[in-house]
Amino acid sequence: MSFRSILRKVTLAKIYLLSGGLTVSALAYYTLEQAMWGGTTERNMASTETNLPTKWDPESGLNIKWSAALGSQTYGNPVIAGGKVFVGTNNQGMRNPKQGGDRGVLMALQESDGKFLWQNATPKLASGRVNDWPLQGVCSSPYVEGDRLYYVSNRCEVLCLDTEGFLDGQNDGPFTAETDTSKIDADVIWKLDMMGELDVFPHNLAVCSPIAVGDLLFIVTANGVDEGHIHIPSPFAPSFIAVNKNTGKTVWEDNSPGGNIMHGQWSNPSYSVINGVPQVIFPGGDGYLYSFVPETGEIIWKFNCNPPDAVYELGGSGTKNDFIATPVIYENKVYIGVGQDPEHGEGVGHLWAIDATKKGDITETAVVWHRGYKDYNRTMSTVAIHDGLLYSADLSGFLYCLDAKTGEHYWTYDTYAAIWGSPLVADGKVYIGDEDGDVAVLKAGKKMELLHEVNMGGAVYTTPVPKNGVLYITNRSALFALQAQK
């Protein structure tokens, strides 16, 4: 164990003794720096960051603080913590000659200048594209707490890493079986093989971006259909799990979608205290949204995000959808849109505002408002809510501004390209990227005003992320740190 880890534990123990009864784990949760996709466990894509750039240009270098080469395909959203930027990509920009070939890569860069620090490069599964699609890399965005990082690898493993990697020269346990221990390699603390230990059958790829509350880490497992898209090889395997973040041991599991999984499960959990009740929200592969008691996995409510007449058809030609988007919790409501694998193309979608204070099957009783059929398409995007306005994008390339309480429509912006990522609201602006590589900057508010649009030189499949006055945007093969000139 490194001196830094020992000091961390001793410090928390002292706080425990002085506090007169709070547990060390609870104190760690409240005192250690946390970072995750969406900024908080509510997953709202809105930030209080200020002084973010309105204009920049990769070609001229205007407001480009630095850029760093990644792999050839990047779907992981950057997470910034402890002076480092963590991002998932593939191994086409190979950094370690010992780790060649197609791999999923979780990369750590220096926040100040983008310098490469270390990586975890995991080989592809031998089963191929049915479980681990070629060249897709790591799509999970990590959860970081103090000096620990948690993410889901392309091999359907939940991994806990030391944020220092082997840069500190220490191999922190209990996992000490790493074969590569140079300064540019990852230091694994523990790993949970969801295929080997839980019988999960990930369809195409495991991609979940975890969150943690107290000692519990929450994961969507990616359990799905077989290569023929008809049978579910492991209907009794869990779709949702809670894992002890200190040990990697499963605390509870739930397989509610069971034999009703339509395709895959590629969304993420959210957490909040809703009307005094702690809830962890999981999107299911059957099109239902589920709420559980975080500590026990006892179900609180479920909501069917497809209308009664929706029908799922092989290849995505039907009107029934599941989830790529992540649920956002805001003022005792849950907001989420439905969609499908983008290979299935455009189609009818639905955006829901759900009263999360109820219990049981709340499909008929909890609809606050709903947008769908002719006025909303399939989506992969998570919503952003700020100043009573909700911003949501769909796969067809439309960005909508709606009233968060009523669903009233204010404006629509057409990017003329598919949108895979989510809108970010920060510093009075709305940022949105698209498949053509354009990033649009609009003024936040009830009146649409385009402030700037710039091409990033490659498709933008991710969401802009702000931290410490810097805006981070990835295209397919590079990460850009953008900062307004003083």
Q: Would you write up a description of this structure?
A:
This protein folds into two domains: 1-31; 34-482, YVTN repeat-like/Quinoprotein amine dehydrogenase (Methylamine Dehydrogenase, Chain H, 7 Propeller), CATH 2.130.10.10. Helices cover 6% and strands 37% of the residues. The protein has helices at 3-19, 24-31, 194-198, and strands at 34-35, 46-47, 64-69, 79-81, 84-90, 103-110, 116-123, 143-145, 148-152, 157-162, 187-193, 211-213, 216-220, 240-244, 250-254, 270-274, 277-283, 288-292, 299-304, 328-330, 333-337, 348-355, 360-361, 367-377, 384-386, 389-393, 398-403, 409-414, 424-426, 429-433, 438-443, 450-455, 465-467, 470-474, 478-482. The strands form eight sheets. The protein has a five-stranded antiparallel beta sheet with strand order 1-8-9-10-11. A five-stranded mixed beta sheet has the order 2-29-30-31-32, with no helix packed on it.
Q: Return the average pLDDT rounded to an integer.
A: 93
- End-to-end separation in angstroms reads 43 Å
Low-pLDDT runs of 5+ residues are 1-30
- How many helices in DSSP terms? 3
- Quick one: CATH superfamily of the largest domain? YVTN repeat-like/Quinoprotein amine dehydrogenase
Category by helix and strand content:
mainly beta
In total, the number of domains comes to 2
Helix percent band: under 10%
Q: How many β-strand stretches?
A: 35
Whole-number radius of gyration?
21 Å
CATH architectural arrangement of the largest domain: 7 Propeller
CATH topology of the largest domain: Methylamine Dehydrogenase, Chain H
How would a textbook summarize the main sheet? 5 strands, antiparallel
* Estimated share of beta-strand residues: 35-45%
| Level-1 CATH class name of the largest domain | Mainly Beta
The strand order across the widest sheet is: 1-8-9-10-11
Give the CA-based shape.
Answer: globular
